[in-house]
Every structure is written in C-alpha cells, then in structure tokens.
Design a protein that fits this description.
The chain is α/β, with parallel strands linked by helices and 189 residues long. The chain has helices at 23-37, 66-77, 94-101, 105-108, 126-138, 153-156, 166-186; strands at 10-15, 41-46, 80-86, 112-118, 142-143, 148-150.
Length: 189
C-alpha cells in the first residue's frame, strides 16, 4: 500500500553498529528499501557521525556536541524509526543504547518503530530485539508486531549486502513497509 498522502512519511534507521560494511547496516538498507517502496522518504543514520557522548558524562546538556542535537532533530522529525542492532552479550549494542539514552519522549513518543537484529550465532538476535521492544515501549512508541532476527549474519549476506535467503529478505523489507504504512495511518488523522 504505497503512501498517497500529500504529506511525505519520513523514516529513519538507527544503525547500532559502527563497523563499515556491517551486516546490521546491510539489513537496515533492505528494511529502508521496503519503506521507500511504500512511499517513504528514508535515511540511514550512522551513529558514528554524531559525536555521541555518554548520558551524564557532560554536566550541562547545553554543552553536548552539536551532533547530538542534529541526531535528536532527525529522529524527532521522523514519522517512523527502524532500530537495528547486532546482539552483543545477550543485548543490543552499546552505541545504540547511548544514542537512545540521549533522546526521550520528544523523539519517540507516538512514533512507529520497526526492529531488526543480527547475530553471529545460530540463535539470532532474539534477546536484543526483546530488549529493544521494551525500551521502545518505555519511550511510548508503537512497535510493529513483526521484527526480524538474522542468525549467522556473517554468512547471511553476499558481497553486495543482499541476503542469500529470499524469504528472510522479504521479511526484512516487510518491517520497513509496515513502519511506513502504520506511520501513514497514524499521521492521516
């Protein structure tokens, strides 16, 4: 169901991996292609580009690096948000946690969220996705029911960032499409 509203739906993806060419980045690109196919304007936000600091490490919020405010503004402007993370030690990545800690209700409340996780192991990123769902709910966001976990991520993608498994690729694209469609519904009021 492509978006036919006059108002364009803007979907951002926060990549919880700082590694160039990461499987998280590749998975989010696929999810964003689903959002774009549904009519969204899309942008992948590389958290390494925003000079993030740890929450509480700077005494006065006004002294945060400019990148923190730029990231907040992009997320606040978004109608839908894709959160992608590798699973590290049974949770989502520290860089994504730091980014989420620097934001709050102003950026997330009543936004539509989609979740994508990758893991080097065969069990996938189920713990990371569960924790991201909990954090998103705590921020008063609406999480789409279908998330995607990509196991054995080092073997799951080809050299161009495409998933070998067509069914899994369709599920990743569907997350982006659902975020766009639900965001369009929420914003049609």
């Amino acid at each position: 169901m492509p978006n036919t509203d006059n108002q364009s739906i803007y979907v951002v993806a926060l990549c919880g991996s700082l590694r160039q060419g990461s499987s998280t980045h590749a998975a989010l690109q696929i999810a964003l292609s689903g959002a774009k196919d549904a009519g969204a304007e899309v942008e992948l936000l590389d958290l390494g580009a925003y000079q993030l600091v740890f929450q509480g490490s700077v005494a006065n919020e006004a002294d945060y690096p400019p990148g923190v405010f730029k990231l907040r503004e992009k997320v606040k402007r978004a109608h839908g948000i894709l959160l992608g993370s590798p699973e590290y030690h049974g949770s989502f990545s520290g860089v994504l946690k730091s980014a989420l800690d620097l934001m709050g209700f102003d950026e997330f409340e009543d936004k539509v969220i989609g979740l994508v996780g990758v893991s080097g192991g065969r069990m996938g990123a189920v713990n990371a996705l569960s924790m991201l769902r909990t954090v998103s709910t705590a921020l008063h966001a609406w999480v789409v029911p279908n998330d995607v976990s990509i196991p054995r991520s080092s073997e799951a993608f080809d050299a161009n960032g495409n998933l070998h498994d067509a069914e899994l690729a369709a599920r990743v694209k569907a997350v982006g499409r659902q975020v766009t469609e639900f965001a369009a519904l929420r914003n049609s009021r």
